[in-house]
């Protein structure tokens, strides 16, 4: 969990901070050193990462008091959950929105939490409303001694983590779809129609939330800020390629769900047609009996075979003959 060990961090809404220097691992900063480090900056080419809890009422006030962040960044915090994107603000800074998804197939609920990121040459700010697995994984990597050369390297790590989450969702969805397809081939749907519809809606929503906006990313990769080196730009490009692969798989899976829905609808239509044919056949076979019973049930004179000793069996034979003829006609219409 994201818990700061320094007194006063919770009052400021900042959970923890790390200082990075060239060719060294990140060093966790005590809460008392955050304002001084942000005022003096890092003259040796390093940078600082601060992680902020937006659920705290004093977090935005603390950021405004100690950091000169663009107003566009604060405006983005009030937008709520949005699709994944990374774009360049006025000047040389970057703003990104990264979504963390908690979803289990079989449950209709999808929990989506957003992470807002600000990055420039010497500062990385990450802000969230709820604890995120991606940030916990990044913090664990920093504590293990993984070296990051710039704030964009941390951002690339977060984007790669989201691409991994999307790939895992695709794998889980593929297994669920395989099970439904096996049941459908075995003609044991077991409410597969509702499952397919629910899964398709969820996948379309996840695709909308997790897919990065291509226009902003394309502009950034073609005109990156001056402080981004070639390695950082290459890392962003590789992350975009990972997203493209995962999104292609997700689109193919969505199309597969659509085809399964159409196949299941065709099976249900065929089953309805068979049921309707059975009801029609029963009606046709009962027609001679109803007609003869209606005619001979009239209380009028002149009913044939009324005095005949074998009249009953004669009528049974006639009805049986009409029934056989009607059945032959009905079954004959079903033949190609």
TrEMBL record:
<keyword id="KW-0406">Ion transport</keyword>
<keyword id="KW-0813">Transport</keyword>
<dbReference type="InterPro" id="IPR045861">
    <property type="entry name" value="CorA_cytoplasmic_dom"/>
</dbReference>
<keyword id="KW-0862">Zinc</keyword>
<dbReference type="InterPro" id="IPR045863">
    <property type="entry name" value="CorA_TM1_TM2"/>
</dbReference>
<keyword id="KW-0472">Membrane</keyword>
<dbReference type="GO" id="GO:0005886">
    <property type="term" value="C:plasma membrane"/>
</dbReference>
<protein>
    <submittedName>
        <fullName>Zinc transporter</fullName>
    </submittedName>
</protein>
<keyword id="KW-0175">Coiled coil</keyword>
<keyword id="KW-1133">Transmembrane helix</keyword>
<dbReference type="GO" id="GO:0050897">
    <property type="term" value="F:cobalt ion binding"/>
</dbReference>
<dbReference type="GO" id="GO:0015095">
    <property type="term" value="F:magnesium ion transmembrane transporter activity"/>
</dbReference>
<dbReference type="GO" id="GO:0000287">
    <property type="term" value="F:magnesium ion binding"/>
</dbReference>
<keyword id="KW-1003">Cell membrane</keyword>
<keyword id="KW-0997">Cell inner membrane</keyword>
<dbReference type="Pfam" id="PF01544">
    <property type="entry name" value="CorA"/>
</dbReference>
<feature type="transmembrane region" description="Helical">
    <location>
        <begin position="276"/>
        <end position="298"/>
    </location>
</feature>
<keyword id="KW-0812">Transmembrane</keyword>
<dbReference type="GO" id="GO:0015087">
    <property type="term" value="F:cobalt ion transmembrane transporter activity"/>
</dbReference>
<feature type="transmembrane region" description="Helical">
    <location>
        <begin position="310"/>
        <end position="331"/>
    </location>
</feature>
<dbReference type="InterPro" id="IPR002523">
    <property type="entry name" value="MgTranspt_CorA/ZnTranspt_ZntB"/>
</dbReference>
<feature type="coiled-coil region">
    <location>
        <begin position="243"/>
        <end position="270"/>
    </location>
</feature>
<comment type="similarity">
    <text>Belongs to the CorA metal ion transporter (MIT) (TC 1.A.35) family.</text>
</comment>
């Amino acid at each position: 969990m994201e818990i700061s060990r320094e007194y006063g961090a919770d009052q400021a809404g900042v959970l923890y901070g790390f200082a990075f220097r060239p060719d060294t691992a990140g060093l966790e900063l005590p809460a008392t050193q955050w304002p001084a480090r942000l005022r003096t900056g890092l003259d040796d080419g390093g940078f600082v990462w601060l992680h902020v809890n937006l659920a705290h009422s004093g977090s935005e006030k603390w950021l405004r008091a100690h950091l000169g962040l663009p107003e566009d960044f604060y405006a983005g915090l009030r937008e709520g959950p949005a699709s994944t994107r990374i774009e360049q603000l006025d000047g040389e800074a970057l703003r990104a929105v990264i979504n963390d998804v908690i979803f289990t197939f079989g449950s209709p609920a999808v929990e989506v939490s957003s992470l807002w990121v600000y990055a420039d040459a010497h500062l990385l700010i990450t802000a969230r409303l709820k604890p995120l697995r991606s940030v916990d994984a990044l913090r664990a990597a920093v504590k293990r001694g993984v070296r990051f050369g710039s704030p964009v390297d941390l951002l690339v790590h977060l984007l790669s983590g989201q691409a991994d989450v999307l790939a895992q969702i695709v794998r889980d969805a593929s297994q669920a779809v395989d099970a439904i397809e096996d049941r459908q081939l075995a003609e044991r749907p077991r409410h597969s129609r509702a499952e397919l519809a629910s899964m398709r809606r969820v996948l379309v929503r996840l695709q909308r939330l997790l897919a990065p906006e291509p226009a902003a990313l394309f502009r950034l990769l073609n005109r990156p800020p001056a402080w981004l080196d070639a390695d950082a730009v290459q890392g962003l490009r590789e992350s975009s390629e990972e997203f493209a692969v995962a999104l292609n798989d997700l689109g193919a899976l969505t199309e597969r769900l659509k085809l399964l829905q159409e196949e299941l609808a065709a099976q249900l239509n065929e089953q309805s047609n068979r049921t309707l044919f059975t009801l029609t056949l029963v009606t046709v076979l009962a027609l001679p009996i109803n007609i003869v019973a209606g005619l001979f049930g009239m209380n009028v004179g002149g009913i044939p075979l009324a005095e005949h000793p074998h009249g009953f069996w004669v009528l049974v034979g006639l009805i049986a003959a009409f029934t056989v003829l009607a059945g032959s006609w009905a079954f004959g219409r079903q033949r190609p």
